[in-house]
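Throughout this review, each integer encodes one residue's backbone shape. One record appears below.

===
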Amino acid sequence: MTGASETTAGAFARRYDSVMVPVIFQPWARELIARAAPKDGEDILDLACGTGAVTRELIATGRRFGSLTGADMSNDMLSVARETTGATGIEARFVQALAGELPFPDHSFDVAFCQQALQFFPDRHAALTDLRRVLRPGGRVAFCVTTGLEENPLLQAQAEALEHFAGPEAGRAVRAICGLVGGDRIRTLFDEAGFSNIRVERVGLMLHHPDGRAYAEGAMGGMHTGDKLSSLDRASRNACFELFLDRMGGCFDGKAIRFPHVSNVVTAQR
């Protein structure tokens, strides 16, 4: 990707990292790390790593891991991941790759994390089977997958506001985040891929941002929906953000937003 398209995509990645990661992906990264409890010397894979939220939280633990590797399909997201983790002084590698076509030898990792991405994989069985291939015997995984819109008021409000101002396709881009909601369905995916000791638990985190309007503009103009809003004039975009805040109801106090975010958290072993 070159020229204006690269600049736009890179800007989206940076906005995603500065607005959405601290509010949503950093807290979930901490939750997953606590559940998998990676140890010193272990080799770690951050699958569908985005801008490296899990990897940065792993670095923040202060443990001395054997290696830290992130894989994602978006080179723009990986560029931000390299930049932000590089500033820590800890070595991590980031590789452009598709889930299901991981460019790693068999038995490369002890632990793998994947947050809020399984629902987007076009072939979930292939992705999980290939992930199992690159794990060592006894290797552990920790995933989280958003549950339904009815449990996630932030996403519900985003979908409704975008549908109203930017059309059905914009709303579907948000609804896709809740495209894999059943715990039993998720368990079956891991079982069919050959994993054992599978546990699926519904977990809710209370998340917040001190400026709801800033979050609305940053998040709704970000990776999933930014192109859907770009054709609107400034007044229409502002009206979209205001409708989003109105639909947040009691989760918006006139300044800050505070809301539950519910996911199915999966832990399993190779």
Summary: Residues 153 and 248 are 6 Å apart (CA to CA). Residues 1-6 have pLDDT under 50 and may be disordered.
